[in-house]
Design brief:
Chain A: This is Ferredoxin oxidoreductase. The complex is a heterodimer. Chain A is α/β, with parallel strands linked by helices. Helix content of chain A is about 40%, strand content about 20%. Chain A folds into 2 domains: about 190 residues, Thiamin diphosphate (ThDP)-binding fold, Pyr/PP domains (Rossmann fold, 3-Layer(aba) Sandwich); about 110 residues, Rossmann fold. Classes of the chains: A alpha/beta, B alpha/beta. The interface between A and B is medium-sized, with 24 and 22 residues. Strand 8 of chain A pairs antiparallel with strand 2 of chain B.
């Protein structure tokens, strides 16, 4: 193989989109398929600049429907592939994403959330949570990492390819326009120096030998004739997903043990929440913080005892309750009082959280 | 500098505020500090007020990318002056260009300090209009100390070195612009 694109480790200062392109390169991705949409365009731009130097490829398709399906096709041929999109592009790509759920296609999708509904803004939101976790017709059999920094964009983009290929569920890196466009420091690395081995890829179709004679047929179906037949298949998918869940579910917490108010948030909003908890603790207010890193599967078992112990919960998100729905579903039956800061399509600062928590106690 | 410095740089598209933000944050990163820079962007990218949100911290990673109130606001057009009032509170130093007309009543009342500097005029009469944003960069680093003068010059070299090679006078011009920018705020801080 040609020289490794990233030798050892290197501290860089760059945009999140650039980080994603470097991460895909480091993860040994073969092909990116894509269609431009702000705020993720530069993932494509950087990829097309970097990829040819390392014998990787890019295909620009005619739209996001095509970008989603070509990504699935590339994966079926045994290549490590991904695409990136946002907002209305995420909407158009849902059909391919649900096909990936049904056919267990380990495709990776990077989503940089922009404002919605519809065209809305090209800037920022957390309004693609429901769509990314549960979009299309199906059961949301996806892995979704909600990142909060450039370091996480790098780490989890690499991880996504391994989780996708190990468990064969479509895997998503859910960023946002802020993460896409801002610059901050990040340490990029060759996964091998961190002891990360990239999971081998293999073709899902076109295998050698005669199907049914030399080998079992590669039965990749997304169409079924009877209700019972489909039911069995979906049950198996759900079982496989639930078996995988405890192995990959991730969350992080801060100062929850004695917290009167636990702040619940995900993605970039957790940066404001961490700052808020620090400020509140300094002012003698017992605040804590819980953040799921995987939105799908969700860290329900970790959250419930924390939520039960807290005096109050505060859910903070840049959407009108999309994250809160996931949380309340996980906390069904608990009676801990809950308040919210919902700011659809708008950034949230630590001051807002601090003031709200102070008003709650 | 204090532990975390928040800067809002605002001007008209083409005045170069985004490049200044980029150069300063890169310089801070080179000095081992934690920097975060996010441009405001929208579908109106061409035309309209362009704002750069910059945060530089001694050591700790920066929190949320945008902030409510800035430690220093630099406003370089009439619209920028009006738009940036929202980032000003009692701890904010507000810097504007004295060549901007018709904003006397729009200058923030509650700021810690309001400083007028003749950057546009200095660029036009003493130096060259193209180094206007480097004058601004000088004003920013002198009022915040987020990076040293040496590091700022090194960052200019990193970014414009290839141009300096072709025409060494450009290096001189940029360095002088940086120094003039620092002087312009010096006496008023």
């Amino acid at each position: 193989m040609a020289d490794k694109p990233i030798q050892g480790e290197k501290r860089m200062f760059m945009t999140g989109n650039e980080v994603c392109a470097y991460a895909a390169l480091a993860a040994n991705v073969d092909v990116m398929y894509g269609y431009p949409i702000t705020p993720q365009n530069e993932i494509m731009h950087y990829w097309t600049r970097l990829a040819p130097k390392h014998n990787r490829t890019f295909l620009q398709t005619e739209d996001e429907i095509s970008a989603g399906f070509t990504t699935c096709g590339g994966v079926m041929s045994g290549k490590r592939c991904f695409t990136a999109t946002a907002g209305p592009g995420n909407t158009l790509m849902q059909e391919a994403m649900s096909m990936a759920e049904m056919m267990r296609i380990p495709a990776v999708f990077i989503i940089q959330q922009r404002g919605g509904p519809s065209t809305a803004t090209v800037i920022y939101s957390q309004q693609e949570v429901t769509m990314t976790c549960f979009g299309a017709n199906g059961e949301g059999l996806r892995v979704v990492y909600s990142t909060s920094s450039h370091q996480e964009l790098f780490d989890y983009t690499i991880k996504s390819f391994n989780v996708a290929w190990k468990y064969r569920f479509p895997t998503f890196v859910l960023g946002d326009g802020y993460q896409a466009k801002m610059r901050e420091s990040v340490t990029i690395y060759d996964p091998e120096v961190r002891g990360i081995k990239m999971v081998d890829t293999y073709p899902l179709v076109g295998l050698p030998g005669m199907p049914g004679v030399d080998r079992d047929p590669a039965h990749l179906r997304n169409t079924y004739n009877t209700e019972e037949e489909l039911y069995e298949v979906v049950k198996d998918l759900v079982d496989a997903y639930e078996k995988m869940a405890p192995e990959i579910v991730e969350h992080s917490t801060m100062e929850c043990d004695d917290a009167d108010v636990v702040i619940l948030c995900h993605g970039i909003v957790s940066r404001a929440a961490i700052e808020a908890v620090r400020n509140l603790r300094a002012a003698g207010v017992k605040a804590g913080f819980f953040r799921p890193i995987t939105l799908r599967p969700f860290a329900k078992d970790a959250l419930r005892p924390i939520a039960e112990k807290a005096k109050k919960l505060l859910i903070v998100e840049s959407s009108q309750g999309q994250f809160a729905k996931i949380v309340t579903d996980a906390l069904y039956g608990l009676t801990t009082p809950m308040e919210t800061i919902f700011k659809p399509g708008l950034g949230i600062t630590s001051d807002e959280i601090v003031n709200k928590v102070k008003a709650m106690i | 500098m204090s532990k975390l410095v928040k800067i809002a740089l605002a001007g008209e598209g083409g005045q170069g505020v985004q490049s200044v933000a980029e150069i300063i944050t890169e310089a801070a990163n080179e000095e081992g500090k934690e920097a975060l820079y996010i441009p405001n962007f929208g579908v109106e990218q061409r035309g309209g007020v362009s704002i750069a949100f910059v945060q530089i911290s001694e050591k700790e990673k920066v929190g949320s990318p945008k902030f409510e109130k800035a430690d220093i606001v630099i406003a370089l057009s009439d619209r920028a002056v009006r738009r940036c009032a929202q980032y000003v509170d009692g701890n904010t130093v507000f810097v504007y260009d004295t060549a901007i007309e018709g904003v006397e009543d729009d200058l923030p009342k509650g700021a810690k300090k309001v400083i007028g500097i003749p950057a546009i005029e200095t660029a036009k009469n003493e130096l060259h209009p193209r180094v206007f944003n480097i004058i601004i960069m000088g004003a920013v680093i002198r009022s915040t100390h987020v990076v040293s003068e040496d590091q700022a010059k090194k960052a200019l070299e990193d970014r414009l070195g290839y141009k300096f090679e072709q025409d060494p006078k450009l290096r001189e011009l940029n360095y002088r612009a940086l120094e003039r920018g620092m002087q312009l705020v010096e006496s008023q801080l």
